[in-house]
Amino acid sequence: MAWLKRNIAGLPAFLWMAVLVGIPLIYIIVLSFLTRNPDGTVGFVFTLANYDRITDPVTVSIFMDSFGAALLTSACALLIGYPFAYFVSRLDKKLRFYVLVFLMIAFWTSSLIRTYGWIIILQTNGVLSGLFERLGFIKEPARFMYSYPSVIAVTTYMFLPFMILPVYNAVEKIDPTLYEASYDLGAGKVKTFAKITLPLSSSGIAGGVTLVFVPSVGLYFISDLIGGARTMLLGSLIKNQMDSARNWPFGAALSVVMLGLVGLFVVFYLSLAKDNGEGLF
Amino acid sequence: MGKRIYIFMIMALLYLPVAIVIIYSFNASKSGAVWTGFTLDWYSAAARDGRLIDSLLMSLEIAFFTCIISCVLGTMGAVGAARMRPRAKQAASLFMYISLIIPEIILGVALLMFFSVLNVRYGVMTMVLSHTTFCVPYVFIMVSIRLRAVDPSFIEAARDLGAKPFKAFASITLPIIMPAIASGALISMAMSLDDVVISSLVSGPQSVTLPMRIYSMLRLGVTPEINALSTVLVFVMFMLVGLLQFVQAGRRSERAAKKEARNA
Predict the structure, then answer these.
(1) pLDDT tens for residues B68-90?
(2) CATH of range A65-273; options 3.40.630.30, 1.10.3720.10, 3.40.50.2300, 3.30.470.20
(3) Which of B14, B97, B127, B194 best tests the A interface by mutation, with the highest count of A CBs <10 A?
(4) Residues in CB range of A84: below 8 A, 6 or more apart
(5) Which residue on chain B is closest to A103 by alpha carbon?
(6) Which of A89-98, A235-244, B24-33, B52-61 is the least confident region?
(7) Class of domain B62-255
(8) How far apart are CA B222 and CA B214, in angstroms?
(9) Which ipTM was obtained for this model?
């Protein structure tokens, strides 16, 4: 009774999450060991065939491509986002406030619509093609879509704020007297950055990399719309198993492996960081 | 100076695609990037399209219910977690953080399979259940952070003065965490209105939300009606997020004032 009294307020929320996150996740693990009937329904017969199929070279290469793309995206976002966050932290207060507000607005603007904007820019006869033609770089209308680099570029663009915000939060917290001390002791700009800024913002980097990496592994509409049929990534493969291919047990096995790998990655990165992305809010 | 140019360029790049969508929604030309003149035709075409309006209404309906349920559950969860024993509290927060970083596609797949084994009819209800599931952790975390600002001695004082626990909560805790609940409400609404991945998995054939409609139109090719519609959606989101920033700006200046008061 005392237990109930203590926990009553939190109970509905945690029950909700347990029923709609906990149980479904356990269920996909169960499902991943079941078989698919010829009519596309699930047969309750134990098998390891779904996991066996993941070791198939085609599936392995999709896994490699997806995780590779996510790593590449994180690296690009870090290269572009770190200097941005660092520079913003050095701005005066008022300007910094406006930059952060506009960053948040961009961050919460529909990702589908922003992807659509890129389609208008990159498509054949699109904005970029027209601009290049006018500048004389190209003679005929060109298309910049349907390629691996274009998928990476748009994904990086999409998740850039996820990198900037945690890094900014970490850099901003650094005590400015540390820089003064470093300069006073004769260190130059580069050395101060390497010895003070970088180590003290490592938690922000780890948080940012995690926040960019996780969603970019599973994303499917950017690769679908920008990459087209040529770039099959994990998100699209899983989605296909759910509707057109109708092989739910295989879809479940793919999800389990993907979640496991993502989980390992997150545990590894967050062990480097104390900041768990709270800065996003 | 170079730093400011860099910041400006990245910001411009962030807004470029949105700006392009908005600009081309007024372009008279049906295809391509050539500007042929100003028109509002695409807006009236979108407004006359009954299916688009139905989708918009469905999106708003789902966002409305998602927002209310998420706020109630997330707030109760955060307030409840604060009262738990330390280890239970830690486990509860960890669970919320984990739910937050599960990739969308996997949450969608898991929910679809779960609904199917329960034989639930897909539609608005399954979408509200799913959207609420990914929104609750956000509200929970925002309210939890804010709860740290509540001084327990105030609650004790209220109780000493004879207030019942609920009265003490309503007159002391609630006003303090209200901005966080408001932010959580706006974020839930924005995320629900934006979701494609999970909705398209758990929606069933009859229920198509606006982002799902836009997505399927996009796969068939670019049409100016989508620009018009997207522009409307962008403005709704801008308003929501603008409001959110307004709420949080108040909080930030409050925090800054406190900091100054401490330093003085």
Answers:
(1) 999 999 999 999 998 888 888 88
(2) 1.10.3720.10
(3) B14
(4) A164, B6, B7, B10
(5) B11
(6) B24-33
(7) mainly alpha
(8) 10
(9) 0.85
